[in-house]
User: Which sequence fits this backbone?
């Protein structure tokens, strides 16, 4: 009988839709709750576990109490063994580390966790490469290469690894300084390496920054000029994070635009800086709108990584046909396919197929969305 350890970080990803870019630390978590943030990790963990339950046989599950795994595994149909103690509603990084230490003694075949880069960092700080790990993506920032593309993919990959013995790869665990991130500074650090089950179609790559070459800058400016030249009056433009999208705001002459958040533009001026989901929905209530996003380098995600403010509710309000994808040719060299992981499987399915990407002034390429 194969053994699976399951850990859920119940607060992972809560800061995304309210524009906080993470929930590391008690102050950030309190602020997220004040803004009305709701947990997303438990539901995404259950989604992965249900797939695992269907596809894996003779599986023993070990987990932590309450919302850190017990409730999720039971909802998915497992009868887990429970280790450790926590204070429900008050989980911390120390609980994650305690769970990792407890799991080390259980002869685990796979450590499945639901969280973000911070959760991966805490786990690896304890177990290093002693146990294979696999992440169900639930955080705001998921730059590490230990995550499956979606919760469904995490369930499939875990099942195949436990049943068929897929190969392991050494995957980097990255983390972003959230305090710097909230100040629009991207400070990413390599925190360690983990052994992770590998199947290329199911696992995401680590984030790859686009090289800041002169050609890259020129391509960004060309895209920005084309977008600005086609902007309509009395239309709301929801501009996602990244250097390529920032070039649009620079072309408009907007001072101090956000790099890592979502800005709202109307009549060629900044309407809301670093907007939350609620603010986007409010401004788009009676106004035609367009979403403009750029894929994450190498990973290829256009929705569901770093721009959770553009939620399923926002996307359905604006409409799939009113989404513009932009990317420089340099970025697309390492990003042959695009991906979506909005948290709404039915909406994700609507994106399957091919979608045009603006790559220069009036220039488009069509790429598959998987």
Assistant:
């Amino acid at each position: 009988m194969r053994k699976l350890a399951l850990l859920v970080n119940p607060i992972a990803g809560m800061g995304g839709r309210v524009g906080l870019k993470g929930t590391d630390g008690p102050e950030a978590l309190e602020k997220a709750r004040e803004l009305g943030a709701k947990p997303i990790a438990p539901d995404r963990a259950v989604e992965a576990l249900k797939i695992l339950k269907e596809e894996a046989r003779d599986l023993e599950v070990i987990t932590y109490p309450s919302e850190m795994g017990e409730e999720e595994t039971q909802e998915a149909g497992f009868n887990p063994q429970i280790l450790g103690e926590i204070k429900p509603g008050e989980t911390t990084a120390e609980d994650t580390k305690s769970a990792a230490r407890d799991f080390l003694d259980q002869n685990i075949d796979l450590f499945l966790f639901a969280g973000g880069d911070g959760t991966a960092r805490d786990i690896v700080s304890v177990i290093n490469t002693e146990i294979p790990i696999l992440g169900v993506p639930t955080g705001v920032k998921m730059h590490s290469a230990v995550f499956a593309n979606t919760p469904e993919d995490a369930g499939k990959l875990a099942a195949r690894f436990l049943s068929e013995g897929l190969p392991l790869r050494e995957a980097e665990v990255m983390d972003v300084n959230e305090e710097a991130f909230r100040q629009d500074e991207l400070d990413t650090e390599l925190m360690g390496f983990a052994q992770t089950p590998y199947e290329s179609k199911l696992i995401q790559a680590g984030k790859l920054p686009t090289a800041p070459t002169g050609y890259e800058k020129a391509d960004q400016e060309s895209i920005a000029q084309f977008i600005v030249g086609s902007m309509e009056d009395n239309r709301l433009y929801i501009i996602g994070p990244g250097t390529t999208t920032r070039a649009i705001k620079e072309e408009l002459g907007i001072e101090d635009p956000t790099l890592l958040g979502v800005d709202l533009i109307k009549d060629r001026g900044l309407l809301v800086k670093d907007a939350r989901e609620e603010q986007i929905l409010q401004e788009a209530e009676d106004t035609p709108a367009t979403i403009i996003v750029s894929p994450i380098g190498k990973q290829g995600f256009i929705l569901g990584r770093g721009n959770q403010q553009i939620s399923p509710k926002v996307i359905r309000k604006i409409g799939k046909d009113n989404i513009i994808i932009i990317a420089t040719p340099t970025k697309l060299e390492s990003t042959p396919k695009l991906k979506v992981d909005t948290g709404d499987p039915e909406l994700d399915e609507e994106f399957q197929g091919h979608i045009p990407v603006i790559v220069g002034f009036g220039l488009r390429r069509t790429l598959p969305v998987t």
Remarks:
- The two ends are 34 Å apart (CA to CA).
- The longest strand covers residues 188-197.
- The chain is about 35% helix and 25% strand.
- The chain has two domains: 2-197, 214-369.
